[in-house]
Amino acid sequence: MIVNSLRLKNFRNYKSLSLSFCDGVNCVYGANAQGKTNLLESLFLLISGRSFRTSQLKDLIGENEQYFSVEIDFVKYGVEQTLRYVADGKQRRLWHNSTNLSSLSALVGILQGALLAPLDLQLIKGTPQHRRHFLDLQLSQSDPLYLHHLTRYFRALRQRNHLLKQKYVMGIEVWEEQMAVAAAYLFAQRATALELLGKEAERINCCLSASKDSLELRYKTVVDPQLSEEKLSCVYLEQLQRTRQKDLTFGSSSIGPHRDDVQVFIQGRDARYFASEGQQHCVVAALRLAEWYLLSGRSEELPLMIVDDVGISLDNTRKKALLAELGKLGQVFISLPRLDQHLFDTTESCFFAVESGEIVQEEIYTNC
Which strand ranges, in their side-by-side order, compose the sheet holding 68-76? Predict the structure, then answer.
């Protein structure tokens, strides 16, 4: 999968922009607050449908403008394709080639990729919601059935919660049954993905940190995810029925995939409390690279890798190791504070200088 070009209109501080990319590493460099992250944000918007910096569409619209537009040309399975995202702050419109996409879920999976950004430290220090979102987006990109069950689960969850808030349980069994069927698939797929992710992240963490520290991801949920899907559905349905009275008291559903968590352990100790700042940043980078490898393993196409402020929180040794790992991937987009043409000596790379929303494309370097 290769992104050939990007066009922006009224996006953040970019009034109008058109860029072409190389197949290897694309480095965006410049001082802070010039627009480096904005450029990467626009690419990720077409992967996930959402910004990794804000939940408000209006924040993405340029000053004194009424809308923004992001459009890319890319090649997937040997076919040239286009994605376009237009929003006015209240509603969005999406196109894949000439087809209008009816929802964000229809967008997810068309363009696949992983993102490493400074805010990713929340994967360790943040709430369970951050870790669930990390897992859900990864699985939704590579498994349409997972996204289907995730959407179905939350639709039924909203209906159950509505009845609980109204203290009205007539017909609640219908929604609980739908939740149980969808949840069974989510439980099983999350457990499988975490096992693979943990092994890959441990390998990468050892490469980045030059240590042999064990890294383990533990799935914290209310069921045994090793059960069959049929059994998982039955067990979870029974739990919903048992907790119904308590849930009526609080007006919300207390158990299920929406309450799951992923615990990160280094050398058998919870990374939230016992890992150093450097270890935490290194583990986060390992998790994101492991995400890329898992996406790659589930597709015939290589996903994109987007890295904002590469290595900003890592020491020089870990930063060099991270850059070496990035150079092994497919098409990579990274932001840097300054130009260094020799960061990637084994792959094609091109550089873009950013200043006040203006970009100058530098020469493409092909290294052997």
Answer: 14-20, 2-11, 68-76, 79-87, 92-96, 99-101
Q: What distance in Å separates the CA atoms of residue 289 and residue 330, rounded to the nearest whole number?
A: 12
SS3 state of residue 290: helix
In which band, very low, low, confident or very high, does the pLDDT at 253 lie, cut at 50, 70 and 90?
very high
Residue closest to 360 by CA, chosen among 69, 61, 34, 63: 34
pLDDT band for position 289 (cuts 50, 70, 90): very high
Residue 367, number of CB atoms within 10 A of its CB:
13
Q: Which fold has domain 123-298?
A: Glutathione S-transferase Yfyf (Class Pi); Chain A, domain 2 (1.20.1050)
Rounded alpha-carbon distances, angstroms, from residue 327 to 55, 87, 284: 31, 34, 18
Boundaries of every domain in the chain: 1-112+304-367, 123-298
Give the integer Cα–Cα distance in Å for 191 and 321.
Answer: 29
Question: Sign of dihedral through CA atoms 316, 116, 218, 126?
Answer: positive
β-pair type (79-87, 68-76): antiparallel
Q: Taking the complete model, does pTM exceed 0.85, yes or no?
A: yes
CB 77 within 8 A of CB 6: no
Give pLDDT tens digits for 58-83: 999 999 999 999 999 999 999 999 99
Dihedral sign from CA coordinates of 9, 14, 18, 19? negative
Strand (E) or helix (H) holding 92 = strand 92-96
CATH code for the structural domain at 1-112+304-367: 3.40.50.300
Among 122, 125, 150, which residue's Cα sits nearest to residue 134? 122
